[in-house]
Write a structure and sequence with these properties.
By secondary structure, the chain is of the alpha/beta class. Helices cover 32% and strands 14% of the residues.
Length: 423
Amino acid sequence: MAYQHGSGRGGNSRGTRGGQGGQRSNQTNRPFHKRRPSNGGGSRRGKSNHRGAYIHPSKFVNKATISGEETPYEPKHTFADFPFHPALHKNIAHKKYTTPSAIQDQSIPFTLEGRDVLGLANTGTGKTAAFLLPILNNLYSNPVPTSVLILAPTRELAQQIDEQFRDFSYGMKLFSTLLVGGANIDRQMKQLVRRPHVVIGTPGRVMDLIKRKKLNLGQINTVVLDEADRMLDMGFVNDIREIIGLTPNERQTLFFSATITPQIQKLMDEFLNNPEVISVRTADTSERVDQDIVIAATKEEKLEKLQDMLGKDEFEKVLLFGETKFGVQRLSDHLDNSGIPSAAIHGNKSQSQRQRALRAFKNDHVKVLVATDVAARGLDIPNVSHVINFDQPATYEDYVHRIGRTGRGTATGKALTFVPPHK
């Protein structure tokens, strides 16, 4: 199969965001070719992302400009150098962590001192361990119940933080509660009664439990906002303000973000006290990703070319994006029926189903994870070789977040986007 290229480098224009739509159906196993055929664009020529503004195909074409062989960061410390408790050092060694990343190396000493920190770093650079390790060390010395609050933009990222907390805190008798939507709220309320040391959640569910008077933030002495810029992009700014406003003024506040936006700066001014600003950003994720287009006139041609690609050895671990919940499930079912193991993640899935799908993908039980944009933000999935946009995103910003799931850390990745032919 030959890919047909557009021209020009990726841009930075943005369209208008829209919803994810889609209806549940009991006919998800019906073959794609039995559906009403696509007209290849018809009167909507070139506009396959009908939720948002038109994105010119040239914006999906860009060669990676940064080699995976750039000069490695030389840390000032090893993990053994940090003044952690022996129990924590034991768990760090068990995970085979020896040399910290740049954000870990530079932020951990300040966090251990109790300083407020704004950490600016690309995705995939170890931000979670950068804040979890000093927090765990401080908690082990002074295990105050419900004293740490960690906010993340998505259920999946919150779940990943909780998993890392459990790994690093093994045998330390420190406990966390995960508060996210799509999971049983009664079970979460019962867990809060047990007064966990750390609360990890998404702003929406955290606010829900505060309003139900099941979560009291009066003892919080450490607040973490992970992927802060993405939380603001997703419209959580008012919830974040209200949540942090309910915590004591005397606290440590840690913000981690990819960029400083005007809203991030405003939140910093409101809630951070003389913060240490640590920037270890190198280049935009998109500069580490080879980007190209695949031209297909109909849904059937898209499916044929997709299956051809997925049959090639180089497509080792593929994150495949669709537009709607219904369409994503049908696409995953179609791939399974075609002998290509896949899992689906979208808004109609329960939290436990989404977690099972992510585990299957992470552990290489399936080659393809088919997802709506719910998976584009905050997920840390190692070794994704390709991101494929079966349906175009609503905005260029969404596109950048999607392709950011590959080319993480110092690696390079590949992104392909299906577009209709120009007429």
